[in-house]
Structures are given as structure tokens and as C-alpha cells.
Amino acid sequence: MHKKMRDSKFKDDRHCSRAMLRLLSVLLFLSLLANGVLTYMFFVDFQPVISKNNRQPNYCSDLKEKWFKSKGRFYVFSTDTMDWNSSRERCQALGGDLVIVNDKEEEVFLAKHVGDINDFYWIGLTDSQTEGVWLWVDNTPLNNNHSWEYPPDDWKVENPIGEDCVILKKKTKWGDVSCLRREKRICEIPCSNPQ
């Protein structure tokens, strides 16, 4: 009788050990799977995506725009064209506004990322409120001398309303043009600090 109980207890212990081994194997597999998924998510979400020309990082590869991060903000260069007001609304929908050029260093940075010599990009400067009084989208006045390729002249041939909005070209050239033209845009979006 003792021998039967001992054999039965031995079988129960072996059965319990096998169940525990299976449970530990499943937990180890799930742990490795979760670790692999987290590693994949880290590299997909946090590494800049290099575009086809292998030099311009695009931080949102599923968007057509090109995103560049610099000095606490993102600069978003569109590939589609819109008029100045629609461009501004698009930038605001992204959480920013048309770019405000604060200094020569920023202007050179932006001009460097402008594509072709024939590409024009809206910036956040206009004299639509009062002709000749240039204001940024945050209502601060223009206080620097810039290189105007198309100097402010309110030319009315293209549009009887005149030219009240500013474009940026390659080589830091600016142009005073009709706000109704369809051009690309540069949005400026502040980076949010994680709390």
C-alpha cells in the first residue's frame, strides 16, 4: 500500500513538473515575442526615414510632405500647391503655421531644403492688412533686410487685388506675389516637450 501511494505521489509530482515546464515555456516565448515587437516599434517609430535621395530625413514617411527637425521645431515642406490662405490653414491643421524666418541662419537652412531653383514656397509674411507694412503670421513686423528677387511693388497685372504674400526660393531669394497663386508651403511646428 505504501508503495502504491509513493508511486502515485511520484506520478503527481512528475505531472506537476511537466505542467510547470509547459507554463514556463509559454511565458518565455511570450516574453521574447513582446520584446521583439517592442524593438521593432522602437526602430520604426523613432528612427528617421531616409528618402530616395538618401540625404533628406522625412519624419513622417506616410505623408507626402518632407519634415525636418531643427532647434526645437519641425519644418514641413509640402509637395502639393495651394494659395496662401489655404496653405496657412493646412499648416494650422498640422499644429503650426506658415514659417516665420527669425534670422539669416534659419533663412539659409530653409533655402537649403527648397527643392529646385524653380520651386516657390509660401512663408508666413504678408502685407495684406496694410500695403507696405509687412507682418509675420504672429503679427510681428518684418525687421530685417532680405534679398528680394521680386521686390514689393503690389503689381496688379496678375491679380487686381495686388501682391501681398511672400514666397521663398532657393538661394534665400524672396518674392512679393499674389496670394491667390498656387505654390508649395513651409510650415513651422513647435516640438512638444514630453511631460
Blueprint (SSEs and pairs):
Blueprint: H1 2-46, E1 49-50, E2 57-58, E3 66-70, E4 73-77, H2 84-93, E5 97-98, H3 104-113, E6 121-126, E7 135-136, E8 147-150, E9 165-168, E10 173-177, E11 184-190
Parallel strand pairs: 6-11, 8-10
Antiparallel strand pairs: 1-2, 3-4, 4-11, 5-11, 6-7, 6-9, 9-10
Strand content: 15-25%
In round numbers, the mean pLDDT is: 76
Tell me the name of the CATH class of the largest domain: Alpha Beta
N-to-C series of helices and strands? HEEEEHEHEEEEEE
- Major sheet: 9 strands, mixed
Count of spatially separate domains = 2
Backbone shape = rod-shaped
Spans of at least 5 consecutive residues whose pLDDT stays below 50 are 44-61
CATH superfamily of the largest domain: Mannose-Binding Protein A, subunit A
Distance between the termini: 69 Å
- Helical residue percent band: 25-40%
- For the CA atoms, what is the radius of gyration? 30 Å
What are its keywords?
33% helix; Mannose-Binding Protein A, Chain A; 195 residues; 9-stranded mixed sheet; 2 domains; alpha+beta; two-stranded antiparallel ribbon; 3 helices
Task: Describe what you observe in this structure.
This protein has 195 residues and is an alpha+beta fold. The protein has two domains: 47 residues; 134 residues, Mannose-Binding Protein A, subunit A (Mannose-Binding Protein A, Chain A). Helices cover 33% and strands 23% of the residues. The chain contains three helices and eleven strands. Strands 3, 4, 5, 6, 7, 8, 9, 10 and 11 form a nine-stranded mixed beta sheet that branches. Strands 1-2 form a two-stranded antiparallel sheet. Strand 6 and strand 7 form a beta hairpin. It starts with a helix and ends in a 5-residue tail after the last strand. About 9% of the residues have low confidence.
